[in-house]
């Protein structure tokens, strides 16, 4: 059994956690920065990085105190080393390096996406490799075959916006507030998903890639037409995203016949309509459906500590010269999606 301190600071959540390799979460805390970013309607990287500097050390002290442990008790220190907003990534990674240097404990530099990808295993002991993963977050929308720790095959990605980004931008267009995903989901509850005809980009196409930019533009046109309530546009938008996710994931299922389960992770996996539709899809293919609890879907440090534990136990530790990376694909060998912008 190993005990890992995890640190997350790649976007606007500052987080620390203590997780054991037997899946016990001894302590975890997430400090959001919504109030600092709300006036700007989105995350301001500079503000986020400064906030991590102020919040992170206290948060680490809190999780150690809550678990009644000291730094000397942990086996390794894991921190997100990318991808993400580089200022924030550097704050968390350098904090971990300082602690590793002072304590003599090994450092594990974790890919934030690997944190999301392995998070379903933290709460589901029955989930086994290989599984098909739909990773839907603020910065990414990918389908991956997860073959093992550090072994990912990217089957598809978005050629423009990520799904979470589309939720956030649509929320902004509709004046629903920030953060956008939960706001759209809440508005959609009192809307009619058939009220507005919206496109389903790439649905039916052979490769299971995603596209959401056209959907966002259609939301803008629907708003400007003045014909619809914001709730109806929100519900129609959410339904369009769900339809795209289901169609694309159905394609990918056929490409990974060895998959033991259909798994969803990342912030958009917190959406109940998304979870419900994917449950139906998995059922139709005779696959178990696995989704982490809601708090584990959005950014947190428990998933970083857990990925750190799996990497540490596989002998994958890092030197104190580990780089902070703004971009860091899980599958560096993946072909670029046709028509893809820089985000792929
Ligand atoms: N209930 C919800 N419905 C839809 N989207 C949601 C919901 N809750 C959160 N999201 C979206 O999830 C995203 C945040 O997820 P997450 O924290 O995993 O992303 P990120 O860390 O910003 O991006 P990445 O992990 O790609 O670097 C935001 O875009 C947010 O709008
Ligand atoms: Mg994330």
Walk me through this protein's architecture.
The structure is a single chain. This protein has 344 residues and is α/β, with parallel strands linked by helices. The protein folds into 2 domains: 3-116 and 298-313, Nucleotidyltransferase, domain 5 (2-Layer Sandwich); 128-291, ATPase, nucleotide binding domain (Nucleotidyltransferase, domain 5, 2-Layer Sandwich). The protein has helices at 34-37, 45-66, 86-103, 112-123, 163-173, 180-188, 213-225, 230-255, 272-284, 294-297, 302-313; strands at 3-8, 13-20, 25-32, 76-82, 107-111, 131-136, 141-148, 151-156, 262-265, 289-290. The strands form 2 sheets. A 5-stranded mixed β-sheet has the order 3-2-1-4-5, sandwiched between helices. A 5-stranded mixed β-sheet has the order 8-7-6-9-10, sandwiched between helices. Helix 5 crosses helix 6 (180-188). The protein is globular, with a radius of gyration of 20 Å. The protein starts with a strand and ends in a 31-residue tail after the last helix. 53% of the residues are buried. Bound molecules: adenosine-5'-triphosphate and magnesium ion. Magnesium ion is lined by residues 112, 116, 137, 299.
